[in-house]
Amino acid sequence: MRRLRACLGAAAAVGLAAAGTTALIAGNASGATAALSNRWYAAAPYLMPLDNDPPDPGAIMDATGLKAFQLAFVLAPNGGGCSPTWGGTAPVSSDTAVQSVIDTIRGKGGDVSVSIGGYGGTKLGQACSDAAATAAAYQQVITKYGLHAIDFDLEEPEYENTAAIKNEIGAAKILQQNNPGLYVSVTTAGTADGTGWFGKQMLLEAKSQGFTPNNFSIMPFDGGFNGAASQTSALTNFNAILQSTFGWDQATAYAHEGFSGMNGRSDTGEMFTQADFQTVLDYATSHNMDRFTFWSLNRDRQCSPVDNGGRTSGTCSSVAQNSWDFAKYSVKFAGATPPSSTPTPTPTPTPTPTPNGCKTAWSSSAVYTAGDEASYNNHNWKAKWWTQNEAPAASDWGPWQDEGAC
Question: What is the pLDDT of residue 21?
């Protein structure tokens, strides 16, 4: 599925790069609001606007005081090419659905950042011919939505590709230069010692290109973590890596460091509760870190029935919570006070499902399209898109959405 195909010639790419400032102004004139403070973009939690049962951002804003959202993910087209799409399937150029979400948020005084990359799919850094072509593709996104912030989510499998990372870092530098005031975050995998070999190579590439974003953020989950203490330890170790790589002192390194967590149950079964988020928030604020965010708002609600940590879902957290509990930690990081709410609910026993609560059993030979339902391993599942012979399993990027036990 990965194809290294350029979508723009070098002359066209350089021409757009040179016009980057004008393009941003034009984008702003088409509907963007004035920029929020950088602290809000630094606090913006991830939201998938087209998948994983997207919540109403206006309702989240009303309930929590949140003003900024990190929309995910912009990728190369699944069929190949160097033009930006949402999730590999929905071209940015003709988008109206995400634009409507952005309009809702801005209509209530908020704003968005857009995240490119993520886990899965083909990234533009892999598909475009060079940094200039990659930047030109991202400039289309900035101009289309009048963006004041962008996030480069560089992780598997892209960050194992040296040429792709060179394109991404080079593109980030071009966008930063051509869009004055653009808030740029770079997010990568976290490990117990800060980040792994590929993360360190990415930092060295940034150093070699003379690129410094607002922050480098790590994701300390899905790597044998166990609560807040293991996460703050990883952040301390990552700070040392930033110091040694860029020659910064400790305070400067913290001022360019960020945290990107996962609320509730992670993909590998780690558990992160509200108390864990509070501990990491206290660490981040006390060390004057630049960013505190999490994956994701689609998951920031209690599973129904209460799951008690038995599965990972793209649409709920698998911990006992009120809706949008975790978003309130982002609001606090931004320096605002969330509205008061009722205490976190006590988990109630999961009701025993009735035998006839299961849908027709999944079949490897059947073709399922978006909205079709089937049962598998005593759970009901709903297809998110066309699929055949892909057994249902809980995954943000898989074709199935878990609807609970049956």
Answer: 36
DSSP 341: -
* Cα(326)–Cα(36) distance, integer angstroms: 21
Which pTM value belongs to this model?
0.79
Q: What is the pLDDT of residue 343?
A: 53
Enumerate residues 6+ apart whose C-beta is below 8 A from 74.
84, 85, 86, 92, 114, 115, 116, 117, 124, 138, 141
- The whole-angstrom separation of Cα 392 and Cα 398 is 8
CA atoms of 115 and 221, how far apart (whole Å): 19
**Residue 25 main-chain phi, psi, to 5 deg:** -65, -40
From the centroid of its chain, how far is CA 323?
19
Q: Could you report the per-residue pLDDT of 381-390, keeping only the tens digit for each?
A: 888 776 777 7
Nearest Cα to Cα of residue 119 among 53, 189, 183? 189
Cβ neighbours around 93 below 10 Å, total: 11
Q: pLDDT tens-digit profile of 302-335?
A: 998 877 778 899 999 999 999 999 999 999 999 9
pLDDT one-digit tens code per residue, 140-149? 999 999 999 9
231 Cβ neighbours under 8 A, 6+ residues apart: 190, 220, 221, 225, 259, 261, 272, 276, 280
- Kindly give the pairing relationship between strand 257-262 and strand 291-295: parallel
Quick check: 211 and 177 in contact, CB under 8 A? no
Contact partners, residue 34, CB within 8 Å, separation at least 6: none
**Residues whose CB falls within 8 Å of the CB of residue 166, separated by 6 or more in sequence, listed in order:** 131, 205, 209
How far apart are the C-alpha atoms of 138 and 90, rounded to whole Å?
A: 15
How far apart, in whole angstroms, are the C-alpha atoms of residue 35 and residue 147?
9
Number of other CB atoms surrounding residue 390 within 10 Å: 13
Dihedral of alpha carbons 43, 156, 239, 326, sign:
positive
Query: What does the pLDDT read at residue 3?
Result: 21
What integer best gives the mean pLDDT of the chain?
88
Catalytic residues: 155
Q: How far is CA 345 from the centre of its chain?
A: 27
Statement: residue 393 has pLDDT above 90: no
The rounded distance, in Å, linking the Cα atoms of 394 and 381 is 9
